[in-house]
Write a structure and sequence with these properties.
Blueprint: E1 2-5, E2 17-24, H1 27-39, E3 44-47, E4 53-55, E5 60-67, E6 72-74, E7 83-88, H2 93-102, H3 121-124, E8 127-128, E9 131-132, E10 137-144, E11 149-154, H4 166-169, E12 171-172, E13 175-176, E14 178-187, H5 199-205, H6 215-228, E15 242-245, E16 251-253, E17 266-271, E18 280-288, H7 290-296, E19 317-319, E20 326-329, H8 335-353, E21 362-364
Parallel strand pairs: 2-5, 3-5, 4-21
Antiparallel strand pairs: 1-2, 6-7, 7-14, 8-9, 10-11, 10-14, 12-13, 15-20, 16-18, 17-18, 19-20
Length: 368
């Protein structure tokens, strides 16, 4: 147990001190650290890669458990075709994606470049370029803090939704009830990717939506696209010092379209009744583009660099200079600087369009 600033553990590089810090490098150490804190009545904060986490400048008055367990194991399940792979929660996600392509495990290529660890992916049902991690998760093994026992969730029991799962919704005193220990994936085998669903990615690959491409090429193009938007960690690029997309694309009643400008982009909401089916379209709801709403509410790339209001410190935090969805630490920003940008954008969009944007990162000991 050592002292630690949360700014050292998060990609936005903000956050005050942890009262207690434990780096857990094995399943046993994770369980021991969490159980000890729970037994002592200490608040618990689980940290993986810190890419979806914002902690206030006051820090965290409890135990921070840093998940650092690593390892990938191919499971011998001969009765099932394809590959069944068990991954420790602290394994770096993008390292695993790269490994999947080398082994011709079909599915994750479009999720290349996403920061963070494997254990965080089922919690948020991480997704990008038309693919969600829940599509190839077979099960997740967790530590149930309420019952002090291991619990395994089959894919169907995780109730994956848009950036959501039962793991995200279930809490104990404001922190996750279930701590992810390992994630089991099931993949088909082949050098070609799953069907390309995202138009921008399809264009860059020279294919039509719905067609497949070499997984290695998909990874290359995704990394290029993400890099052009400052969405791949780069110590030389301040636009990458962020939590990625700060706001989720809002899902709203279809009637909301009547109050939006003609041509405002909207997309179908697909509801899955089973992890093994394509899902059905929700006729009553649509998904809007948060980026479009932000820009058309008057917030351009780099908003905050000039200190547009007294509440926003000039130049310390801003919207990315590459796109409007990320809030970036320009150097020396506090958590409050980032919160101020988020509040300005959220309130501006709500005033202009009547739609309230919801933050994607977990905010600890702070308010937006």
């Amino acid at each position: 147990m050592t002292e630690k600033l949360l700014s050292e553990l998060t990609t936005a590089q903000v956050g005050g001190p942890a009262k207690t810090y434990v780096r857990a490098t094995s399943e046993a150490e994770i369980i021991e650290a969490v159980s000890a804190a729970d037994a002592a009545g200490e608040p618990v904060l689980i940290v993986g890669g810190g890419s979806n986490l914002l902690v206030s400048d006051e820090g965290f008055n409890g135990t921070v458990v840093h998940i650092a367990s690593e390892g990938v194991e191919v499971l011998p399940i001969p009765a099932c075709g394809g590959a069944n792979v068990r991954v420790q929660a602290g394994t770096i996600w993008d390292d695993f994606v790269k490994l999947s392509i080398e082994n011709e495990w079909v599915g994750p290529a479009a999720l290349s470049g996403i920061p963070g660890t494997v254990g965080a992916t089922p919690v948020q049902n991480v997704g990008a370029y038309g693919v969600e991690v829940g599509e190839f998760i077979a099960s997740v093994r967790t530590w149930d803090r309420e019952k002090n026992t291991r619990k395994t969730f089959a894919s169907a029991d995780l109730r994956f939704g848009y950036r959501d799962s039962v793991l995200k919704r279930a809490t104990v005193n404001g922190s996750p009830r279930y701590v992810v220990l390992t994630v089991d994936f099931q993949f088909t085998l082949g050098s070609l990717s799953s069907p390309i669903r995202y138009a921008e990615l399809a264009r860059s690959l020279g294919v039509e939506p719905g067609q497949r491409a070499e997984s290695a090429l998909v990874r290359e193009k995704v990394l290029q696209l993400r890099g052009s938007k400052g969405m791949v960690l780069n110590p030389e690029d301040r636009d990458t010092f962020s939590t990625g997309s700060f706001f989720t694309n809002p899902i709203v009643p279809r009637s909301t379209l009547e109050s939006l400008p003609e041509g405002a982009p909207n997309f179908p909401v697909v509801v899955k009744t089973s992890p093994f089916t394509a899902g059905v379209e929700d006729p009553d709801h649509v998904k809007l583009s948060a980026a479009w709403l932000i820009q058309h509410a008057g917030f351009e790339k780099g908003f905050g660099l000039e200190g547009e209001s007294r509440e926003i410190a000039q130049g310390r935090a801003s919207l990315s200079t590459k796109h409007t969805l990320a809030i970036t630490n320009r150097g020396g920003a506090s958590a409050e600087d980032i919160f101020a940008i988020a509040r300005a954008v959220r309130d501006g969009v709500r005033e202009r369009f009547g739609v309230t944007l919801v933050p994607e990162p977990v905010v600890v000991n702070g308010e937006i």
